[in-house]
Automatic annotation (TrEMBL):
InterPro entries tied to this protein: AllG-like, OXTCase_su_AllG_h-dom
Protein name per its UniProtKB record: DUF1116 domain-containing protein
Entry-linked Pfam families: AllG
Organism of derivation: Actinomadura rubrisoli
Length: 469
């Protein structure tokens, strides 16, 4: 009783601390009276989710399943081990392509996805003109399916054709293998749906020169620890999705001596180094493959609500969850909110596209914005917005990454392991920083910004998990 009286007395002798949850009118009124207010980003779970939340959270094995899944995600050890053509490592045959995001048919494909598929047809000499390529695709003259179905990921449209060279990443801990294509650079590139002569010429040079040169360097170097490199890059100002400047420099520092020592013509060595050094996003694809390997290590844990894939095809946004197998939960992809290049604006933007949200899935990208304050100059907002975005993500994740640490947050680990139940219960959606592709095929990149998934995909996944547990 005495202790209770002491606490009550303290309320009268100290300055009040006010916390508001979802009541903006109250918070605004108090702030106008100079009362310090801490607003909590909270909203009640969507109607109709109560039973599913109770079933999942009440399952005795759910917490252990989540802990096991996220432990596998953060203890994976992805290493770059090779660079090889997609025909060899993915078994792609002539007329077969991969694409970003969940499954998609030609008649629902967006402009940039169509543009990238047209470009792939031209690259593989399955058509002589863009119009001819489009007609072949319309009549079903080529087969295409998601990169994720083959252990691969692709940025933006993510289109992979048989002759493209792939980064091969192996998880030294759980023995999984993942793949990603080589980064083309910025501007008019296939992944943004451009397919002009300069795009095809660059891709052919990458297949003839860059891919073989990188293969020689990686094989001479031996397995390259990508997680260690990513951890260093985070402490140098990258978040490993829209900012890869430090990671690209670190990768080149590792591989340049071996590239110079390999049996590669000197002019090709110089061209490969010049191309990679002139592209601050060169590391992105390696980082995506590393994130894919880490996320795949957490797949297939019964009862776990851990998200193991977030991906967009320019029409749909899809997620996959550890405890529900290979099933996709999809909803409409949203248009990013960000900064636009030149005279472009929101009306020119395509809905979100790409497998690169695998970085957020594994605790990088938008989840590590606090590590990269300079990113706000590329995606919009202010530095405090970047810090706040990362801090919100701790509310919906299961762990803090032991290797990926944020200096600005006193070296706290990045939030990692999105839990569908936490997303539904809090109403906080994952934040993704992304490039923006032009709506029309052939346009290319028009900007960069931030985007959130549709809330319904997490609700659907929760209901599916509830039916299993």
């Amino acid at each position: 009783m005495t202790e209770a009286r002491h606490r009550l007395g303290g309320l009268l002798s100290r300055e009040p601390r006010v916390v508001t949850a979802g009541v903006e009118v109250l918070a605004d009124a108090l702030e106008r009276q100079a009362v310090p207010v801490e607003a909590v980003d909270w909203r009640p779970p969507p109607p109709g989710t109560e039973a599913a939340l109770a079933a999942v959270l009440g399952d005795p094995g759910h917490a252990d399943a989540n802990a096991r899944a996220v432990r596998r995600m953060v203890t994976a050890r992805p290493h770059l081990v090779d660079v090889r053509p997609a025909r060899e490592v993915l078994g792609l045959e002539t007329g077969s392509f991969l694409h970003a995001g969940p499954p998609l048919e030609w008649d629902r494909a967006s402009g940039p996805m169509r543009g990238a598929l047209i470009g792939a047809m031209l690259l593989e000499e399955l058509a002589e003109t863009p119009l001819g390529a489009e007609r072949e695709l319309e009549r079903g003259g080529a087969a295409f399916e998601p990169c994720h179905h083959h252990g691969a990921v692709g940025p933006m449209a993510g289109v992979v054709s048989p002759s493209m060279w792939m980064l091969v990443v192996e998880d030294a801990e759980y023995r999984g293998t993942s793949y990603c294509s080589l980064n083309e650079g910025l501007g008019k590139v296939l992944r943004y749906g451009a397919y002009g002569p300069e795009v095809i010429e660059r891709l052919r040079w990458m297949g003839a020169v860059l891919g073989p040169a990188l293969q020689a360097a990686v094989r001479l170097h031996g397995p390259l620890d990508l997680l260690s490199l990513i951890a260093q890059a985070l402490q140098m100002g990258d978040e490993l999705h829209n900012r890869n400047r430090a990671a690209t420099s670190l990768l080149l520092r590792e591989l340049a001596p071996d590239l110079a020592a390999a049996d590669v013509p000197r002019d090709q060595v110089a061209a490969a180094l010049r191309f990679a050094a002139g592209n601050d996003h060169f590391f992105l694809n390696a980082g995506m493959a590393a994130a894919k390997a880490s996320a795949d290590a957490a797949r297939g844990v019964p009862g776990s609500g851990l998200v193991v894939a977030m991906a967009r095809n320019g029409t749909d946004f899809g997620i996959q969850v550890s405890g529900t197998g290979d099933r996709w939960f999809t909803g409409p992809a949203g248009v990013p909110d960000g900064l636009y290049l030149g005279g472009y604006g929101p009306d020119d933007a395509n809905p979100d596209i790409g497998d690169s949200a695998i970085t957020e899935t594994a605790g990088m990208g938008g989840f590590a914005l606090a590590a990269a304050p300079a990113i706000v100059r590329f995606v919009g907002g202010e530095v405090p917005d970047a810090v706040a975005a990362t801090q919100r993500m701790y509310e919906i994740t299961l762990a803090e990454h032991p290797a990926l640490q944020i200096p600005l947050l006193s070296f706290r680990g990045t939030p990692v392991g999105i839990d569908v139940a936490r997303v539904v219960r809090t109403g906080i959606l994952p934040v993704i920083d992304t490039g923006i592709a032009g709506r029309e095929a052939g346009t290319g990149q028009v900007g960069a910004g931030l985007v959130e998934p549709p809330a319904g995909v997490f609700t659907d996944a929760l209901h599916a998990l509830a039916e299993i547990v």
